Amino acid sequence: MSEEITPFAAMVPVLVSEARRRRIALGVVFAVVALGALIVGAQWPKKYDASTTILAQESSIITPLMEGAASPTANANRAGIAQAVIFSRKVMGQILVIGGWMASNPNPVEQDRLIEAIKARTKVVISHDNLITISYYDSDPKRAYDVTRAYAQLFISESLASKQRESRDAFEFINGQVETYRKKLTDAEDKLKDYRGANADARPGSETDTDARISQLRTQIENARLDLMEKRSQESSLNSQLSGESEVSAVQTTQGIDEAQLAQLQTQLDTLLMSYTADYPDVVRVRHQMEDLRQQIAQAGQRRQSAPASNSPTSLENNVQFNPLYAQLRSQLSAIRADIAATSARMSASESMLQSELERSNRIANSENVTSELTRDYNVNRDVYQDLLKRRENARVSMNLDAKQQGLTFLIQNPAMMPLNPSGLRFMHFGLGGIVLSLAIPLGLLFGIARLDPRVRSSTQLERSTGLMVLATVPFYPTPQDRQRERFRNVLLALIVLAVALAYLILFWLKLKGMA
Amino acid sequence: MNGPEDDKLLVDSAGPAHGSKVGALPQRASAGHSIARMSETDTLPPKQLEQRRLIHRENSVRGQSDAFREIRTRLLWLGGEHNFVTLVVPVSPGSGGSFVARNLATAFAFDEAKTSLLIDCNLRYPAQHTALGVDASSGGLIDYLEHPASGIQSVLYRTGIPRLRLIPTGKARENGGEYFSSFRMRAVIDSLRCRYLDRYLFLDGPAIKGSPDARILSDLADFVVVVASYGRDTPAAISQAAANFDANKLAGVVFNHAP
After folding, report:
1. Which CATH number is B10-256's, of 3.40.50.300, 3.40.50.1220, 4.10.910.10, 3.40.50.1970?
2. What pLDDT shows up at residue B40?
């Protein structure tokens, strides 16, 4: 048509006449589209959807209970690799068996192709980090159900197995380490023992012992020295005292006694004289007695002068006796001397002991280096060993947890259900779409022809676009043959439409009966 | 076939007839014969007419016959008192030019006071003799032009429609231009027109597209009717086709619903 846009009202007669002219072609297009849609619809594989949802729990009731004692293997990560787990060759191989694909014994290439097809039909969606939804569709509802259920089971068992493996590996590793450290510890102990056996001083505490001993010995020596000094001074003092004393005390017995009596009498006399007169008999008697005594003393003096002088008091016969002070001093002196000797002996003993202790202390200092090194090794090993022992127990609990599946942290939230109705495009959709399309496509073609074909289709259009005068519009002159052909075409069109309608009815009826 | 008196003076009257049109008309009028003398023996029944896609007076083809009557009226109004030569050419082959020419001639022949002569000038694809069911065994236009001695009478055929005669193409020729531009052709047309005052000539020309014949033929004709077909010709092609002709001669376009 011309450049200007033809209004739709003006196109209607054109559309009608075109439709009349081309009704067979349109009818054929209609039939082809409608029947094509029907065939596609009948052949279209039915799609049965099955899906299952697995909750990967991040923590279960057991987690707080086992806090610290067992560390559960992380689940969030397992959700992250769900797709990799599900699409692993191992799982897919089992899926092939479960889905019945292996019944025909496909070769590896076919298996691979089958697996790819199954993968394409499988969808793994992870939502909220821990909700794994596995969906699968198949043309067979039973198989869709089986495969989906198997997916869930295999995924969980795979995950649990890998968890178990993980915890067992951890336990075995720690166990191995424990053994290693036990051996190390034993070695260290043995070394320490051997060394101690070889070095008597290398005992724990021997150094403090020695130190205490040394200080004790030193105190003893000091004390002994002081003691000795004291004793020495005592000795010298005693010596000096002793030199002042005569060996024999020269007691002039009579003279002494007389003089003592004389003094006594004098005192008596003095006392009497205070009360009595000199004529008092007692006074006279006392004066007499004193006189007697004076005579006696004078006689004794004469005797002593007449007698040859001897140099020792012992020569004085019964009048000579030993000086008791002297004897006492002498005995004291000798006792002190004995003490001094004893103290000196003790001191020298102590000193020699100190010497030996000091030597020992030296030895201990030498051996201390070796001992401390050995002890350090021992301590480190012991600490690690104890720590590992604790950890091993934790790992054992973890392993048991996984082995007993007590830490079961996968939960099938939504089990796979047997799909009863096919999803996706169904025969009904194809039928309806076919009818709509089979009407729309011819109409669209018609409209396109009328709209886009520039050739003249009406006299008004001819006049308007060329400016020429239209003498007349001659309608089509049908000959009887033409009329017959027209009738034939009408019948043909009716037959086509009827056939399509019949095909639709029959197929829909069959579908309704569930036969196709 | 034709009566003995029909067209016998054609050669004689050809000389003065080719002069000026205005001057010729009174002479033609004096020389004209009455159409009533033409005898019609074998009139075809409507059913056969319909088989030949020809209009008739029955009700069944009223739409078509009315359309052609309208064209006739229009042409008669344009032509005034005198008979004339009308060239009918389609824009493109298959547009139904022959059909329009044939039926236009038939429409003129409806009028008992007029006769029409259809001359098939489509040398390449002559169709009229088959369409009208005429046995063109005794030659046609080309034969006559090549051998004028045989006389025009032999190439004038009855069509089974009262007052409608046909001159078929005769021998098929590739290059019609030479024949149509010849003096003899012009003489033939003029003599045919002038022979009877109530005879209207219709030239069925070849398609404008792809052949210069239509343009050459338009020199012989008084009016040109261009036939455009439904869903076949674009406005541009029609305009271009119409531009080939003298605007005064172009009577108009017939919009034909070809099959």
Report:
1. 3.40.50.300
2. 58
